[in-house]
Structures are given as structure tokens and as C-alpha cells.
Write a structure and sequence with these properties.
Blueprint lengths: L14 E6 L2 E5 L6 H14 L16 E6 L2 E5 L2 E5 L14 H13 L9 E7 L5 E4 L11 E7 L2 E5 L9 E5 L4 E4 L8 E3 L14 E7 L3
Antiparallel strand pairs: 1-2, 2-11, 3-6, 4-5, 6-13, 7-12, 8-11, 8-13, 9-10, 9-12
The chain binds N-(carboxycarbonyl)-S-(naphthalen-2-ylmethyl)-L-cysteine and fe (iii) ion.
């Protein structure tokens, strides 16, 4: 029995799927909260606008990013790191919205990582053609904490590799309202996002947003 309606939206009880040891996909977990999450993103970007950061190698990222929380993830010619100050505004990043905190708590508990409290959230914005090449998330201090990722808007093909960059990635379609919790042995896996296909989503238009809630400090 399908748990998606004619429009592909999750209906009924969310499914729970183990993608790998430590990685749990919770399909449709936050469909109902999506409008509140999108409003919260709007509040964040009013104070910390989306920007296309520069990699240490000098390439402009196609993903537009911003942050909220006590620290924000940055890249520039000097490298990748977390910083408490937004270099574009010279101000602290906006606070983590309560709606983000609630989702982090519910998703991490459902995945078996009770007690996870994020202190940072990277907010990614994808337009058609935007991609994110294979990488590891390793600028956080404590790899025993999981990362909770939330997909909103247009669907994306997520690439989930292994411990080595050369491990052939598996592909998963991540849709509006899907949440993935990455912990344990999956925490340092290589991962990325294939170029976003064009489309129109009822609540975000031609955009996809991804939230990654992290314990950075
Ligand atoms: C697997 N974001 O922001 S979310 C990122 O869709 C990032 O914007 C992607 O990779 C996006 O760093 C993918 C899924 C994700 C996030 C963090 C992970 C998968 C992960 C950390 C470890 C392993
Ligand atoms: Fe990542």
C-alpha cells in the first residue's frame, strides 16, 4: 500500500527505513510542519541572507547557504570552518528557531539518538541545476552526535557513498517533508546531491531547501 497521495505527498504514518548502519530515513515526518519550517527559514534569511560561498580552491558553490544557531558553517579562500559571526553582516547568526529544535528532537529520538540538541543549522537552497559534490561533514567537533537533515520543496537525488570518496554512491530520492538522521558509522560517510531537476512545488515553487541540524561546538 502506497503512503503517498496523487501529488506524491506522504500521507498517514511516516515510514522508517534504515539506509545504512546509523542512517535512518523518516519519510514525510515533517510534512505537517513544513509551512512553519518555511516561515522560520524566511525569518532567518531576513537577518542572514542566502549567499553563494567560495571554496578554498576558488570555486563559487552553486548551493546558496545561510546558517542559524550559535555557530554557522562557512567556506572561503581560507578554508572550511564554523564561526559564531556571519561574515556578510558582521553580526551573530539568527537563533535556531523553535520549530527547527522541535523537529531535531522528534527525529533524533525516532532514529534512536535521544538527547540530541543541535547548536547550529546550515540552510541550503537549490535551484534547478544546483548540485553538491561528494563530501564529508567533518568540521564539527564531536562526531558522536548525529546530523538531522530535512528536505523541503522540490525533490532531489541524494548520493550516499561510503567511508572512501571512491566508494560508488547509492541514490535516494528525497522529497518534501523527508527527514534523515545520520549517526554512528554513517556520520562520516561521503555524500552529495545530484543536479536538481526542474519542477514546480506547491509550497516552494522552483526551489528545494535542506536544513542540516548539527552539534558543531
Ligand atoms: C550523510 N546537505 O549540508 S542532506 C550538507 O541535501 C549536505 O543539502 C545535503 O550534505 C543537502 O552538508 C544532504 C543529507 C546529509 C547531511 C549530512 C550528512 C547526509 C549526511 C552527514 C553525514 C553523512
Ligand atoms: Fe554534507
Amino acid at each position: 500500500m502506497s503512503t503517498r497521495d496523487l501529488f506524491g505527498e506522504q500521507v498517514g504514518a511516516p515510514e522508517c527505513e534504515a539506509l545504512a548502519d546509523g542512517a535512518v530515513l523518516l519519510r514525510g515526518l515533517v510534512v505537517k510542519e513544513a509551512p512553519a519550517l518555511l516561515r522560520a527559514i524566511n525569518g532567518v534569511i531576513a537577518r542572514a541572507p542566502f549567499r553563494n560561498m567560495i571554496t578554498p580552491g576558488g570555486f563559487t558553490m552553486s548551493v546558496a547557504m545561510t546558517n542559524c544557531g550559535r555557530a554557522g558553517w562557512l567556506t572561503d579562500r581560507k578554508g572550511y570552518r564554523y564561526d559564531g559571526i556571519d561574515p556578510e553582516t558582521g553580526q551573530a547568526w539568527p537563533e535556531l528557531p523553535e520549530a527547527f529544535m522541535r523537529v531535531a528532537r522528534r527525529a533524533s529520538a525516532a532514529a534512536g539518538y535521544g538527547g540530541f540538541v543541535p547548536d547550529a543549522c546550515l540552510v541550503n537552497r537549490y535551484e534547478p541545476g544546483t548540485r553538491l559534490s561528494l563530501h564529508q561533514d567533518r568540521n564539527e567537533r564531536d562526531f558522536t552526535a548525529p546530523i538531522v537533515s530535512v528536505s523541503l520543496g522540490l525533490p532531489a537525488v541524494f548520493l550516499f557513498g561510503g567511508a572512501e570518496r571512491s566508494d560508488r554512491p547509492r541514490r535516494y530520492r528525497l522529497e518534501h517533508g523527508d527527514v534523515v538522521v545520520w549517526g554512528g558509522p554513517a556520520r562520516l560517510a561521503f555524500h552529495g546531491v545530484a543536479p536538481l531537476a526542474d519542477g514546480e512545488h506547491p509550497s516552494t515553487g522552483r526551489l528545494r531547501f535542506n536544513l542540516t541540524m548539527r552539534k558543531a561546538l
